[in-house]
């Protein structure tokens, strides 16, 4: 049931911020925009950084001997380095498509495995940057992604008692997690021939954006800021919006309170574990234009996405039906919602039953850094949407916004997700309402339900190959068998 975590792998030592002589805290307003400079001068922006020369060089990712190995920068304690790289990413039909991304290490354009997304990192309150796919750090990780229950619910046949504040959750590549009270320190290297930028939508004071500002070709920039309020954020390159984002320059920042790590936000919905679902739509035509040195003008060349990804997987790979055990395991851990049924009214956020147990569902953070409107549709259970773009929706006196959307917490079997949208939803993991007693009492295997996007083109790959696109499923487990 318990597996060793990867929490300590590649851990960066804590920045001795408090002890560093001459450290002057950077006022928040100043920290929001430290600006971009070419060369290494930006290092000076981190006044607290100890002697960089003492830190060991980080090895570049392995490449073929014939390929020139790009040099990685000397890492700084407590600072996450992001490399704006380019390369060719494999799609679900084995096509190679030109993409860009914020990677872990400098890689060449022709690298077999270009670094186009970071491994998940956690910025802790005590100043560390920890490489970890799971959070909370140190919490037990659910095998295959599925949290085991505490035990049967004696009052409700076929249902289970859920552990309170117990299980860690897995996060996909591209994720940064920041604990509230932490300071996020980023250094961004632009390795490409055009200007780029890293911005974080809605993470600034007053709900504004944070940004490095423009980073010239070959240049670097730093960005340091206090973790914003608990919530779900998108970091991305707003250059020639939405082109650079669509080419892959995006990721997610999730902010959580480490003292209350099983809630969406303070006083908000509790959950058993959480899932971060990041959608992406890939237009190979746009990639071809930029790869050839051109600049996409969306007016001249409207986007025609041909691949639709969930946590960077599509179709049979997103569904964990691929020949690769590693891909299948990652899909189960990061995307394919699973758990044991529990008696619940999800509108009672985190109702205590007995000590150590809770009535709660699972949180799905839906994020769309891509190009197209998605319609996230679940069979089996409806979802209860609690927040959009980190704003709580009301429980009563709902309103209709300027776009005609109802703003009210409600049951939804289709959750609309506009480009740059973030919605926090709870899936109850409950007995499906139309399962009769006789059927339910005789259940012996897991019940699996589809999730598919109702925007039908997103179900395809390369214009066909249905269902090769944005799909998933979720599972209500059964203790009756080892399913
Ligand atoms: Cu359906």
Automatic annotation (TrEMBL):
Q: Which residues cross the membrane?
A: 31-53
Q: Which PROSITE patterns match?
A: TAT
Q: Where is the composition biased (Low complexity)?
A: 11-20
- Domain annotation Plastocyanin-like: ranges: 171-259
Q: Which UniProt keywords apply?
A: Membrane, Transmembrane, Transmembrane helix
In this chain, the stretch annotated as Disordered covers 1-24
What superkingdom heads the lineage? Bacteria
Q: Could you tell me which Pfam families the record lists for this protein? A: Cu-oxidase_3 (PF07732)
Q: What is this protein called?
A: Multicopper oxidase domain-containing protein
Q: Which organism is it from?
A: Arthrobacter halodurans
Species lineage: Bacteria, Bacillati, Actinomycetota, Actinomycetes, Micrococcales
